[in-house]
From TrEMBL:
<comment type="similarity">
    <text>Belongs to the NAD(P)-dependent epimerase/dehydratase family.</text>
</comment>
<dbReference type="InterPro" id="IPR036291">
    <property type="entry name" value="NAD(P)-bd_dom_sf"/>
</dbReference>
<protein>
    <submittedName>
        <fullName>Epimerase</fullName>
    </submittedName>
</protein>
<dbReference type="Pfam" id="PF01370">
    <property type="entry name" value="Epimerase"/>
</dbReference>
<keyword id="KW-0560">Oxidoreductase</keyword>
<feature type="domain" description="NAD-dependent epimerase/dehydratase">
    <location>
        <begin position="9"/>
        <end position="174"/>
    </location>
</feature>
<keyword id="KW-0520">NAD</keyword>
<dbReference type="InterPro" id="IPR001509">
    <property type="entry name" value="Epimerase_deHydtase"/>
</dbReference>
Amino acid sequence: MAEAPTKPVLLTGAAGNLGRMLARELAGLGWTLRLTDIAPFPDPLPPRAAFTRMDLADGVGLLRLAEGCGAILHFGGISVEQPFGTVLGPNVQGLYHVYEAARREKARVIFASSNHSIGFHERPQGNEAKIDVDCAFRPDGYYGLSKAYGELMGRLYWDKHGVENVNFRIGSCFPEPTEARMLSTWLSFADLVRLTECAVTAPRSGHCVIWACSDNPASFWGRDHRDRIGWQPQDSAEAYRARVGQITSGNPVIERYQGGSYTAIDYTRGKPSARDAFDLD
């Protein structure tokens, strides 16, 4: 276990499911936290934590909150598929405010990206190769598109300003897998905490992208940059195969693509009739 960071850490989206869990667990590791969200914090405040209720649209407020922080854990914004206008402000403009705060403070950004940034890649079959983090973005909706934008924002701020950033392409982070797809995408809460700890405390990260899933043999994903920060997942979805391995959607679009149910939202191309029917690239 690494020592707690010497500087405070700012956590956006602290009132969300993952934010609340991270606040509790990181405080238990001795971290000093500044928590923020547009919604009230629903739990008793952990030790060494302070909460400020704030909208990501408040760029000046974010600058003030980030003063003296060594890292910003950016888990705020819209976290599910929504219309473009709903996603635009929090996930694009809000992210800009986070990076500007990080640039001023020379803080590292830990960005909660998503598998939905690449959700229209097909699931590997048989011995087909898994995709690596340098694969093309293939977002499966406006939410996934905003996550691709977020990773590119990190690339820009590293190349132009030297702002280090670690991008977690989160699969499915829940207490347990609930259906067959999660045998490939599941990330345990404990593995997310360990990943966050490594991302913040690593001596250097540069701009890196990590498949944020547990040690699942059925994972869709291959190489990433985890060696830069020294993270290896310790949990596995395989223990849940007998319980959830037969639970599928029955929808051919959902079952074909890595993004799962998000790929079928507002999908208008018609039912795929063959594996390569639409792939002309």
